[in-house]
């Protein structure tokens, strides 16, 4: 798998990543009811590009990533921004569930295809979302294995049917999957574009006890 600790310091040097995060934030805000009262989790946050693009629209934002190097850079970006409502934490929900206060919205950009057990992660994200809260995930559409270098052990994108079933099994309802943007990568000297989906869903609210 990719060694993100080694890549962290130079991660933001590619302006395409910053632009992709900005477009992803706009796509999320257009698809779910982002409000300035929301507490938000960005999972697989990396250096925090998506979170910082969303931070001004919400009350509080927690960036969570399993790479200590990425978290270190994210904390530096937060300090530079002066945003007291944003924090970055080290953690992996496939290892241990979220133990803190639940979130109104969970977001993720280009992290899901690195996760071996996607169904487990979605269950843990659902558990970290308050009933009625939202999730918005952007990641690769099926791409045949060209996006990463040979030997990549993750997923080569996700079909819409697979995503709908996985979200529903995790306790989410109102699942929608649509194309949101493209991402670029240079392969063998040529710039290739790959489709990125936006999957949104709402955590199911438990039925109210029968008052009668």
Describe this structure in words.
The chain is an alpha/beta fold. The chain has one domain (4-203): Rossmann fold, CATH 3.40.50. Helices cover 29% and strands 31% of the residues. It contains six helices and seven strands. It has a seven-stranded mixed beta sheet with strand order 3-2-1-4-5-7-6, with helices on both faces. It is globular. It starts with a helix and ends in a 9-residue tail after the last strand. The relative contact order is 0.16.
Reconstruct the topology from this structure.
Layout: H1 4-7, H2 15-31, E1 39-43, H3 49-54, E2 60-65, H4 68-81, E3 86-90, E4 103-109, H5 118-127, E5 129-140, H6 160-169, E6 172-187, E7 190-203
Parallel strand pairs: 1-2, 1-4, 2-3, 4-5
Antiparallel strand pairs: 5-7, 6-7
Short note summarizing the structure:
The chain is of the alpha/beta class. 29% of the residues lie in helices and 31% in strands. It has helices spanning 4-7, 15-31, 49-54, 68-81, 118-127, 160-169, and strands spanning 39-43, 60-65, 86-90, 103-109, 129-140, 172-187, 190-203.
Portion in strands: 25-35%
Instruction: Please name the fourth-level CATH homologous superfamily.
Output: Vaccinia Virus protein VP39
Main beta sheet strand tally, sense and closure: 7 strands, mixed
Q: Based on Cα principal axes, name the global outline.
A: globular
- Round the mean pLDDT to the nearest integer and report it: 92
E-strand count: 7
The overall number of domains is: 1
